[in-house]
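DM between two lab members

TW: hey, do you still have the UNC93-like protein MFSD11 entry open?
JB: yeah, one sec
JB: this one, 460 aa:
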Amino acid sequence: MNRSTLNVILLSVGFMLVFTAFQTMGNIEQTILDSIKTDTKGEFKADAYISLAIIYAVFATCNWLAPSYISVTGPRVAILTGACCYVLFIASFFYPHEALLYTMSVLVGIGAALIWTGHGQYLTENSDNETMSRNAGMFWAIFQMSQFAGNLFVSLIFTKPNINHEQRTIVFSVLTSVAVIGIGVLLVLRKTPQKLSLGEAEGVSNADKELRLPEPKREKPLVTAWRAFVDAIKLFLTSNMLILSLTFIYTGLELTFYSGVYSNSIGFVKKMGDNRKSFVGYSGIGIGVGEVLGGAIFGILASKISGRCGGWPVVITGLVVHLFAFVSIFLNLPNDAPWGDTDNVGFIEPSPPLALIGSVTLGFGDACFNTQVYSLLGVMFANESAPAFALFKFCQSVAAAISFSYSTKAGLHIQLAVLLVTIFLGTGAFCYVEHKAKKSNNDTPRETDPALVDATSGED
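TW: and the structure you got?
JB:
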């Protein structure tokens, strides 16, 4: 195992542990806050959808500044800073207070911009054209194992319709501890190995192939940060990035749906039975199963196939799988399921197995889209990885913030209708940009492999 592969594995495991805590908390937040409101007889009025909307709104805003921060500190410091923000957010649930929750939501939004933009640059620095798809799939498969342990734990704890203070304390303690362990793993991330600048050039001798990239010219931190901010704006205004924003927006909308709306909706349908709250955790596990399968199949095992055909067959597969999920959810759950406990039913008698199948298909389709977006960005924007991934997360988080905002008022059917329209736009945008990029690469002769040229030194 070479150093770059080990870096990707450590990055994946660290993210998996931190997001075991955070994604589990996101899945159960509305259920948790609803139980706190019951215990306090309405004195506690915080809303999970508002909290999540704040997170993604701040996330979107800070994505413009994250490349500047990373240009000064490097990706590893950004990743660690972001991870610490996640730990503080989870720990804040020990002291349920509306102002504290919303303040910590702002903090974790800042941390999210840093950790995800840093992740994008670090993953790209440790990949090349041949390994980018494999590394993206490896990261996604390991990362999404975070859905298993946390949600299984929650499903075993939440065995009754009402969740008491003792159960909540156990959950918060375990999730906070897991996130802290994740930070420990991220602390051992190593510097990115320098890449060769002339390794693939024709006529270059073996001795010359060992030449390393020269150290970049050092600039003042503020100048470096400003340059990174300007570069991000310029990149966003390019035609490829503007078109890809439609794909990014869809991933943000479906992220909102599967992470904050769907699992809680299952737990609110009384016809699911007295143990319906445990289905919130089982749904998260189902999403994780789909994510890991998608990451493994389309990221790791099919990396050679995607290298020849591109990512569009995988994205089309994600389209078909998500359409099946939307139809099954439309039939199985009532329109008012996202808002709280309901006696209503959908167009068929509520079925727990069908609900869990919906969870698996949502996760599988999400993996199809995300692994290919990561791969495409890592190849197309190898030398602009930080702003490229920041813009991806910007569009995704803006869509997520808007979606969480209207989730407090919009019924399940309206949310599914929005997803139905945007999935076709997002799929078409991805296929068009990938085809355009592939055609451009075929028409332009190259003497060197651009993945071997890196504008960063790998130091942080």
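TW: got it. Confidence is low (pLDDT under 50) at residues 196-216, 446-460. The two ends are 23 Å apart (CA to CA).
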